[in-house]
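explain this chain.
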Amino acid sequence: MKERIKTLLLDANGYGWKAIAADTVLQGILKLSNTFTFPSTFDRVPIASTIAKAFRQRYETLSYVNDWREALCSSRQLEVEVCNINNLMAYHSRKKAIADYPLVIILHSAAGDSMSLLLKTAHWFQKRRGILVVFIGNEYDLLAEKIKFLRSVEADYVCSQLPSDTARWLYAECDPTRVLSMPHALNPNLYHPRRQIKRSIDIGFRGAFYFGFIGDVERNALVRFFQDRGADLGLMCDVRAGNIPRFDWARFLNQCKGTVGAEAGSYYLDRKGKIIAGAKAYLFKHRGVSFEELFHLFFESPQVEYRSGKSISSRHFEPIGTKTCQILLEGNYNGILQSNVDYVSLKKDLSNIHEAIDMFRDTAYRKEMADRAYEYAMSEHTYGHRVKGLMKAVINNHDSNTRIISG
């Protein structure tokens, strides 16, 4: 077996000064392991309870954050060291590792909700001798900052969840950075059928409603339709707003015959992120603004070049893993999922809702669809497949005389 590649994996347990302060004090100064559990008696002491809440996995409801990290850590090709950059003591101690390791990977959690820490330490990455791979999270928000970071460090690879043509357009100014299409996938270790759990729910949903600054309300309308009218159509629905921890989410999906969804992301991507940034700032300044007004002001006639960033997400693979049939709004889904093959297709205006529900109610049809989608994902679209694809791309582009192997 070839020697494994020494890899530094940078992630972040949440974002913002509160998360940084908590992780630096509790993990960096007090040396508490991230698996440390506070005694239940802490819940009865206000200050202690606050400390215990600060010491938590802040992205536990975003399954892909843990799924990617676990897949990379379990790769036979990699010898991985993980660093939470919110723990400033740990992050600073890895400064030399960033310079020396053959491979450094920045995950979505570190390059998603905030770019502040990475931009402040960009000079650390400029001095590296190894390969730098950056996964971009939330590929509609803070785009100017994310592209600025990629350019300033001359990242070797940017891994994008977007369709490949959109990703190449978005990061065109980041040359010589190579763009790799790296959508989310299935974690079969967590999302799998559990025969002992009865599927008592026809349509189930747990998730956040999208803010209007994304530029559409299609998914919100779909979810609210089943929330408000599902029972009138004879369906047992359990549809609630709010994400839940991934282990609870996997169990919930196993209780459902079906779930609903749509492509993630925005129709209005521009390279500087001006459209969404403007809409976001306006929305938070004018809390009562209607979507119609927001759309008219920012999305109806954008003054900059833009592309659709609609894409497949982890939320589409998780039901596939549990063999939960999906009713999804029509879309491309990165060319991975096929309409009425891997999911029941619903028009965006919901005009074929009754036809779609009739298809869903056909037990044999629904089971055949769920089984087919499961086998397809297991054969080509697990996180293990994604990591192998990443390593193949990186290693094939760097021969034995270059920095990826020489470490």
In short: The longest helix spans residues 363-380. The domain at 201-269+307-380 is CATH 3.40.50.2000 (Rossmann fold).
